[in-house]
TrEMBL record:
<dbReference type="InterPro" id="IPR012341">
    <property type="entry name" value="6hp_glycosidase-like_sf"/>
</dbReference>
<dbReference type="InterPro" id="IPR008928">
    <property type="entry name" value="6-hairpin_glycosidase_sf"/>
</dbReference>
<dbReference type="InterPro" id="IPR004879">
    <property type="entry name" value="Ssp411-like_TRX"/>
</dbReference>
<dbReference type="InterPro" id="IPR024705">
    <property type="entry name" value="Ssp411"/>
</dbReference>
<dbReference type="InterPro" id="IPR036249">
    <property type="entry name" value="Thioredoxin-like_sf"/>
</dbReference>
<protein>
    <submittedName>
        <fullName>Thioredoxin domain-containing protein</fullName>
    </submittedName>
</protein>
<dbReference type="Pfam" id="PF03190">
    <property type="entry name" value="Thioredox_DsbH"/>
</dbReference>
<feature type="domain" description="Spermatogenesis-associated protein 20-like TRX">
    <location>
        <begin position="52"/>
        <end position="213"/>
    </location>
</feature>
Amino acid sequence: MPNLADHYQQLPGTEGVPAPPLEEFEKLRQRRGYSYRPRTRHLFPEGWARYTNRLFLETSPYLLQHAHNPVNWFPWGEEAFELARQLDRPVLVSIGYATCHWCHVMEEQSFEDETIAEFLNRHYIAIKVDREERPDVDTVYMTAVHAMGLQGGWPLNVFVAPDRKPFYGGTYFPPNDYPGGLGFLSLLMRIRESYVAAPDRISRAGVQLTEAIRTMLAPTAGEESWREVSLDQAVRLYRDRFDDRHGGLVGAPKFPSSLPLPLLLRRYQTSGDRQLLAMAELTLQQMAAGGIYDQAGGGFHRYATDTAWQIPHFEKMLYDNALLTVTYLEGFQASGRTEFARVAREILRYLQRDMQAPEGGFYSATDADSLTPHGHREEGVFFTWTPEELIDALGEERGNLVALCYGVTRGGNFEGRSILHRDRSLAELAVELKLPEQELELMLADCREMLYRARAKRPLPLRDEKILASWNGLAVSAFARAGMVLENSELVQVAAKTAEFVLQNMMQEGRLRHSYQEGSARGEAFLDDYAFMVAGLIDLFEASHELRWLDRSLALCAAAVEQFEDRELGGFFMTGPHHEQLISREKPAYDGVIPSGNSVMVMNLLRLNTLTGDERLLEQADRALSAFATQLVQSPAALSGMLLAVDYQQQTPKEVVIVAPEGKPELAQPFLAVFRRVFLPNRVLVVICEGEEMRQAERLIPLVEGKVAQADRAVGYLCKNRSCQRPTSDPEEFYRQLREG
């Protein structure tokens, strides 16, 4: 077995650059067993990697993917920037994540190229960053690229001075020159020449970009009031751009998040405008029928590259699937369409089967790429089929049936293979096949399970096994809400197990940590980590009726306010006092594929205020909304998640309390059954038993005071601002109250 010290010394172009602590390489190799075969084309005949850089000492799956590049990568940190100052070199900050397709492409084309690596090692300090570990670093330099007037994306490659100020950047760069553009090596040469010949110009560019970043990341409040915000203005924008054939917004690529369905459903619930419900229904139906949805295994891919949701980018993210679960549940409640409930169940089954760690947390993502039978990595090969493969897995009769129902043809619709999708409804297929619809549905469900098992024998896509507190908070919400809406206690138990995992393994010295890898938590938690976990714990309290989850949510919420609140202007910063101070501090507001930490945090404060009556929470929410009032008025579609908080306040949230006799929680079930039948987004729910449980609840939830059961029957209370309608022990009367408000 070659010595790792030899590996490092063979990195091209590293003369004069201090070596890392090579004894640490050896210790880590012993601990890991070094039994894996590195993913690199530079191998000794015995199969060991020819090159090993500092990233071998990291735990991030993305950084470890680059640990055997010939590039002398450094992790983000003072060591790299201090060396850049000593050697007077520019710094390449290259940012990506483990399941990023174009990150893999650039690695293979450029960072595995020894000529490029030698030039990079000789004239630059190269830093690799996992954007999911350091979203603060990613945000700063992505904003720099936007400030240059360029489109962002990953991999993100930014050139910065030793003082960390950026002066140029972009995303994917091909290795060689092409008509109209420079290849990566030529770009490295050109930037090096400018850095040496015109340092003043580089410095001015860094100062200007840094100032632009600071302005963009923490915009100042204007004179507008958030109380003047009209959700209908944002809805009009979506209505005007709606794709009335395929759902979502017109054009491609198509992201599920580009049309905020929760906002449409709330406006439908308030206004009764059935066109908004129809827009949401069509979008949910078309997404679930398309190739963006994994028909065999459940769960959604990242986005569709076409207008009809058929051709996906095949990576799967935990956050997409957690958020879409909640959206399909709301679609089910608002429309009554049972197929939306089925999709929610299938997403959660996918997460449990393919993404859950044995300890209880959920992994982050799976890759778009996987290995072909010939050993080449290609996008989508794991998820696609030929007619022959269907017959091999299902037999001829069923194979032909699935090919007909899911559009599998000899020519295929993706590089000679077919992505499973449905062009016709189940009812239409049943008529054509002359089968009862229910029989066809059961047959196809059985076939999908057989395909899942057959597919599992293929080389699996890489799975990023980081466990992130923020995304696990989204998973807690998804499982808890599903358990409530679908009356499934096992799903609530999954939510509880996930919450327990985070709170037991990712809390240190009273503070939440951002990620968990290789058996230990690391990194200070960001605003998103706290905000999403608080939201998950509130949802878990409502689904489980256990006060401990409300208690923990209040404690985490208080910690988030303490660490992240802008006490002068309102709102919350992404980073707190325990984080590294970067060249700018973001106050996130944009609601993209994931809602911003501010949007979720404001909703947390409002929900907890409704439950507890604590006016400080309402004041903090009001200050935050005021901080973003100008953006809410001028660009409401950019803050679609925060609009949900505005709607919550404008509609006056309902307080739903169900009181059961002492020791008889089962008597609350008829009331919960009718509660599930109503789409009631702007509300809180408390289910409690008389006796000791009630006395404990009164400490946290004053709105339960004075509310009692009736002999051996539960009683339902519907209130607003602590003013209640007539209590009722009749579930159907309670249902009428909920419907009529």
